[in-house]
Write a structure and sequence with these properties.
alpha+beta
């Protein structure tokens, strides 16, 4: 199946020019003002720094560069160049290990280093003997992918550096359904990176699904920790993993920040609009990281996994999902039909980045809603998960619950930023929205053995849910 890629070439060229111009900043006398709006104002730059290069940047907080450094805890120079420092026999990760489910008894562990030699990995079923594996290597030069701009590199703990990178894989096959496995990646000199996961939970059993979306430095760390503390069986990311429009966000930094979750279980992702910002990042970062994820028949852009008889459909709202007719729409309908006709599948949960029930900043696509909501309603989809708007909303619409939780750390949006526009077009939405909160946080989806779903929304800083609701 051919997948359409939606990458804005003009934005890509502009980003490269921004990096080139950014390298001309005088390091001793430059600072950047991080505003709450869409623009970033340079305070002191060389004469040839183009003001327009900063337009449209989304940054968090309201402080200068020194404050951003303090928030990140990165006053000292510390980055993934550590593999060249004192203990060269210890291999550092540019992207720490993360595991994804490829089938009922198959999983893949993937990680990235800047060393060509593959690492060894141990897998152990709890209470059983262990197996040793050697990772396969994908040694590739990323000559142009450098973020942030060089003058800011030492303000970021894990910058994206140009050069050779090795994306390493270990595929675990023949796993015992319903069992918990521990994995260990050997970095050398006795240093190990450890995690665990569960595979093939029996159909009809309960499980906990974690949801996080729109993660931006530095507020994403608290949201990720909050979700990890809830110990989900597996976790979903709703897209916008990191923001190149934020000068201190990096791909390497995201994966390190994500590690509290990736150590605890499988993780799967949706594509967001910020995976398409420039520098070919959809192909070189998102694609290299996640290609091959999901069960058989999945693509990079849209994929699925089955957990305990629930089919989770991870769609791509950045290409043709909202079109009247498309390959992705046909794929979606085929899977909804398969669930309807199956004796073993209980129901489907659908997830994608852009919501079409929201009153927050980005106005929903009403045409897409009119095409897709009837499908979800008629096929008995109980839950649709979205992100994109940086807040929390819950809607109840003809038996379908829509959770819009983009509170993973990016700039907080007001819950009523587009209220007047939405209600002018769809006045009935006022009654459909049940809860709204302009807060950072995550959602737990607790699927029960009786096919009910308990929803809990947690603020990043609180251990008691701010919203609870049971579907079914």
């Amino acid at each position: 199946m051919t997948e359409k890629k939606d990458i804005n070439a003009q934005a890509r060229v502009g980003r490269r020019e921004f990096i080139r111009q950014g390298s001309k900043i005088v390091a001793g006398g430059a600072a950047l003002m991080a505003g709450c709006g869409p623009e970033l104002t340079p305070l002191t730059t060389t004469a040839d720094m183009n003001q327009d290069m900063f337009d449209g940047l989304d940054l968090g907080g309201g402080s200068d560069l020194s404050d951003m450094q303090h928030d990140l805890g990165s006053d000292d120079v510390s980055n993934d160049a550590a593999d060249d420092m004192a203990t060269p026999e210890v291999v550092q990760f540019t992207k720490p290990p993360f595991l994804q489910l490829l089938g009922a008894s198959v999983a893949r562990l993937r990680f990235e280093t800047r060393r060509e030699e593959p690492l060894s990995v141990r897998l152990q079923r709890r209470g059983q003997s262990s197996q040793e594996f050697v990772a396969t290597s994908n040694w590739q030069d990323l000559p142009e992918f450098e973020w942030p701009v060089p003058v800011l590199a030492n303000t970021v703990e894990y910058p994206d550096r140009p050069g050779w990178h090795n994306m390493q894989d270990v595929v675990f096959e023949g796993l015992e359904p319903g069992e918990v496995y521990d994995w260990i990646v050997h970095q050398g000199n006795g240093v190990e990176w450890k995690g665990s996961f569960e595979v093939g939970r029996p159909n009809g059993s309960a499980f906990d699904l974690g949801w996080i979306s729109d993660t931006m430095t530095p507020n994403s760390e608290a949201a990720i920790r909050a979700l990890a503390d809830l110990n989900p069986t597996l976790s979903l990311h709703g897209g916008d993993l990191q923001y190149m429009t934020h000068p201190l966000d990096t791909w390497s930094g995201f994966f390190h920040a994500w590690s509290p979750l990736t150590r605890k279980g499988a993780v799967h992702t949706c594509v967001g609009n910020h995976e398409l910002e420039g520098l070919d990042e959809y192909e070189l970062q998102y694609g290299r990281s996640f290609r091959g994820h999901g069960f058989e028949g999945s693509t990079l852009g849209y994929s699925y996994i089955d957990v305990a008889g629930v089919r989770i459909l991870l769609m791509n709202s950045e290409t043709d999902l909202f079109a009247e007719s498309s390959a992705q729409r046909d794929w979606l309908i085929a899977h909804l039909e398969a669930v309807k006709n199956s004796t073993s599948l209980r129901f489907a949960i659908v997830a994608y980045h852009r919501p079409f029930f929201t009153m927050s900043k980005s106005v929903p696509n009403f045409e897409a809603r009119d095409r897709l909501h009837p499908l979800f309603r008629d096929y008995g989809v109980p839950l649709v998960l979205n992100g994109h708007n940086h807040c929390y909303e819950r809607y109840e619409v003809e038996g379908v619950t829509y959770i819009m939780d983009g509170g993973g750390g990016a700039l907080s949006y007001g819950v009523d930023d587009s209220r007047d526009v939405v209600l002018a077009e769809r006045p009935g939405d006022e009654m459909l929205r049940k809860v709204a909160s302009a807060t950072y946080g995550v959602t737990m989806v607790r699927v029960q053995a009786d096919n009910t779903i308990k929803l809990e929304r947690y603020k990043s800083t609180e251990s008691v849910p701010m919203d609870e609701y049971t579907i079914g």
